[in-house]
Amino acid sequence: MMLLKTSLRSFLAHKGRMALSLIAVVLSVAFVSGTLVFSNTATGTFDKLFAATSSDVSVQPPKPAEDEEQQAAVKPPTVPVALERQVAALPGVKSAVGQVLVENAVMINPATNKLVGPTTGAPTLLGNWTDTPGNPLKVTSGHTPRGPTELLLDADTVKKAKLALGDTLRVENPLGRHDFTIVGIGTFTTTNPGAALGFLDTPTAQQALLGGPAFSTVEAYGDGSRGDDRLKADALARLGGGYQVKTAAEQKADRSEQVGKGLGFMKYAMLGFAFVSAIVGAFLIVNTFSMLVAQRTREIGLLRAIGGSRRQVNRSVLVEALILGVLGSTLGVAAGLGVAVGLIKLMTAIGMDLEAADLQIGPDVFVAGYALGIVVTLVAAWFPARRASRISPMAALRDHGTPAEARANLVRTGLGLLLTAGGGAVLVLGAGAEKAATGGRYLGLGVVLTLIGFVVLGPLLASAVVRVLGALLPALFGPSGRLAQRNAMRNPRRTGATAAALMIGLALVIASAVFSSSAVTSTSAQIDKSVGADYIVSGGRTAITPEMMDAVRRTPGIDHVTTQRFFAAKVQLPDGQKAKTPLTAVPPSFFGTDFRPTVDSGAVDSLQRGSLGIGAAFAKDHGLKVGDQVTVDYGQGRTQTVPVGAVFGKGELFGDGSFVAMDTMEKVVPAAEQPPVWTFFAKASPGADVDRTLTALEDGLKEYPQLTIKDRAGYKELAQSQINTLLYLIYGLVALSITVAVLGVVNTLALSVVERTREIGLLRAIGLSRRQLRRMIRLESVVIAVFGAVLGTGLGLGWGVTAQRVLRDQGLGTLSVPTVTVAVTLVASVLIGLFAALVPAFRAGRMNVLAAIATD
Length: 856
Prior knowledge:
- GO terms for molecular function: transmembrane transporter activity.
- This protein is of the alpha+beta class.
- The protein contains 29 helices and 24 strands.
- Strands 3, 4, 5, 6, 7, 8, 9, 10 and 11 form a nine-stranded mixed beta sheet that branches. Strands 16, 17, 18, 19, 20, 21 and 22 form a seven-stranded mixed beta sheet that branches.
């Protein structure tokens, strides 16, 4: 109890100095708890929807095989109409309803030629209206669809698309184009996750969406006499094993798994960067407690002199850290609710409607938040606590502080050099690895080793690098510059720890910038080198129809159109083993004029004579060469034996896939079994104006807003925008760790000013002006920040270059170092240093000279 009182008294005595460390803990915990609350809320919202809309038992078509999935996206699998009566006749079934529900259709407002419904994220669903407990909508305006031209639309979509009853809506899918009139509006009975729902009457839905009398599923609702598992067992026994039969719990689990995959990337990315910020915050806490321990050296000596043991001193510091951790975690969990609300608003803006009033705060939020905050704080404080407990009473009373530990410093330097050299060697191995997977493992290990090595070497590097960085300060700023340089070098361990926090954030920024710049440059170079087609047309979520391609062919200035069909194929090798490969069937114009691949061996025109073209990595992995006979399995029992005719070079724009001629594929795969076209290419006629033809192409395809039309420049911009979207996310999240690092610099300077109160008073007494004093502190801050930026830039360049080399055969063939970003980073470090010094410099300048000199 006495120990707790002492620690609490000490904590409250230094509450101002603990404030910034507290903020670091709060930020880290807030992002962890906020991410978990957001994830729980999103999952809970979908769970409610799935629970409300799931039938007791759902009878579904057999799951499509891997090689049938693309075909299933165009023509969804169905069950026969007769199945509805069979399920209804099962014991314990109160009612059975045939349901039509597809995702392969789009809704278009013909008045504006704009898509109705989400274009990313949540799907657009069309089906038949059924009056069942599982219907997610309740009719609130108009009436249900009763004829072949009537459609009911959900209220959220009506509002977003600015539609109303009586408006015309066009539905397009692979079966054709259909016009409907909006006769009803339905409101979600649960939270709408962002999907657009349109409903037709059953006969119209069957014909327009499935192509004839059939259902997507049959949903059964029990009378309460039997459980869902018993109903499922009876259905399987009566219907046989040709169908999937799922209970309400299984339906909910399947849908939740799909949602979890979509939210997983965002969740784990944010958690990852929250932990990075926690690591950065640990450096701040180490510095804070180290300086507080140094300032309380005499107090510690008195405690030891009156009988306090090393263990008690250690515990005293750790209890203070525990108080900081508990308080920071509590505030962090509370702040996490604000983070979760912000994430919900962000997701709502991009089409996923979530209710901030339905926040799901589970036990995992508190467990993760408190565990992170307390563990990080205690681990960070353990090092200063250990040093404090080792101070002898007499040395402490003389205010000599911790004795020099030459041997420990020697061990630290040796360990740091070993880790850094080892990490550098591993990065070199990763850069030279032939396989990307092997190189990726080396890269991950090298990042960890070099990061730890630089942190351990921080004090040694601080002494050397700061001396160089601060060499010009005396000449440029006189006494202020000389004092700033010496102050930054006075305690290398403290300077190293402060700069390390900034180093981590900036290293991630530089590495990400090198990777993204290389990706953009490599993609642009590949497009310039390999692409001869002038236009790329993509259907996005929907397949390309013959009408769309005909519209392109009719466009003035278009020479020809090139299609491609993708197969998830298997290749039987000469030794009898099978290997999967993405296989593309292409017409003669694909490699004739539209693409110019690099060929390692063989000839690309051999494809038109019935051979197979394969990637270099596939050839190497499976020991294939030109002339080898292989058997291609297109799926559904369609096989064909062909020779290898060409081996494409590494790093091609179209990856490491395989190719056959369209004519070759059509010999064994009937037209009805061929996969749809998702993307096709067009070439401008010789002498035609490419830009003017693009405008004509866009005008000719206005009635198909689901299509994306790009010329080569637009395709480059699209690739760059996709990379930049990820890059900006990384920058935004890294900004959190940099913010914590800035707080570390502020805290170090603030505590340093307090620690040097008497020294500052003496400097003022011998003639140093307030302006010179403030300049000294600002320059010290800038030197520390630039030191961290230099280390971060070096690490980031090493990581980014290695990442490019690891992925050189996966499309990142060109290394591009963004010198502007590097320069901006170094300039930004100066600004960070100036900003961090504002408050400490202001407080130092306001000190009373006599009071400062009298400070003990």
